[in-house]
Design brief:
The chain has twelve helices and no strands. It has two domains: 115 residues, no CATH class; 81 residues, no CATH class. It has 245 residues and is mostly helical.
Length: 245
């Protein structure tokens, strides 16, 4: 059974160099509606991104030990606060502040724009979550739904040999489309399935080591594509990357 998710002071273990880093997010709960401030999963994510968000959480969540502990585990305490910058929506027409694609573009440039977003979108968990995400994570928003769907099929704690054995067709298809690690061949599902079988021919100990190495390599490649995905709880993954039609 995969380990339960929990926020950490430091990022999960990485297996690749040059892994992208985040910096502290913006305390967006000050501009969010009451229902957002009462959503425990979303508030936990936002206080992890910036502990100052706890100031605007609901009284019940300010008294919740899980939420307070998550705020204390924030890995961004010693990083510089992002600058406020110039807010374009401050001067935009009221109707423009409810245009979701425009608003998403605005918060991607500067999360402080949320204070000038229309009331309807300030009640949208997706908008608030992306506004409050750590600075540097916004590139994850651009990942295609097909990749996200594949990522959601993996265990919450990451790819394991057990998962590959149980879902080989699905994993090798996702590998061929989205990973293509040069260490194990590029892009052809049949060749990867054959390589997996060949691991067995090297004896039980060698096969186990080869399979573990393949899973670590693929996991690291996926983390490099979507670093925030593996840093947040499964419930917040559904908010940040909705794939249900």
């Amino acid at each position: 059974m995969a380990a339960a998710f929990s926020y950490q002071r430091t990022p999960p273990p990485r297996h690749l160099t040059n892994f992208p880093s985040f910096s502290r997010g913006v305390p967006v709960l000050r501009w969010a509606c009451a229902s957002i401030c009462e959503d425990k999963e979303l508030v936990q994510f936002l206080v992890w991104s910036n502990p100052c968000n706890l100031c605007w959480a609901s009284p019940a969540l300010q008294s919740d030990v899980d939420v307070v502990r998550t705020a204390l585990l924030s890995p961004y305490y010693w990083q510089a606060h992002p600058e406020t910058g110039h807010c374009v929506l401050r001067y935009a027409a009221e109707e423009m502040r409810e245009v979701k694609p425009l608003v998403l573009d605005a918060i991607a440039q500067n999360a402080y724009e949320l204070q000038f977003v229309g009331e309807g979108l300030r009640a949208d968990p997706y908008v608030v979550a992306w506004a409050g995400a750590p600075k540097g994570a916004i590139a994850d928003m651009a990942c295609g739904k097909e990749l996200v769907r594949f990522m959601k099929t993996l265990p919450p704690s990451g790819l394991t040999v057990e998962h590959v054995e149980a879902h080989a067709e699905e994993v090798f298809d996702g590998y061929a489309k989205h990973v293509q690690d040069p260490c194990f061949g590029r892009g052809r599902k049949p060749s990867m399935a054959e390589a997996w079988k060949q691991f067995e021919m090297r004896g039980p100990e060698n096969a186990a080591a080869q399979k573990e190495e393949w899973c670590r390599s693929v996991q690291a490649s996926l983390e490099k594509k979507m670093p925030l995905f593996f840093s947040v709880s499964p419930a917040i993954r559904e908010v940040l990357w909705p794939t249900r039609e």
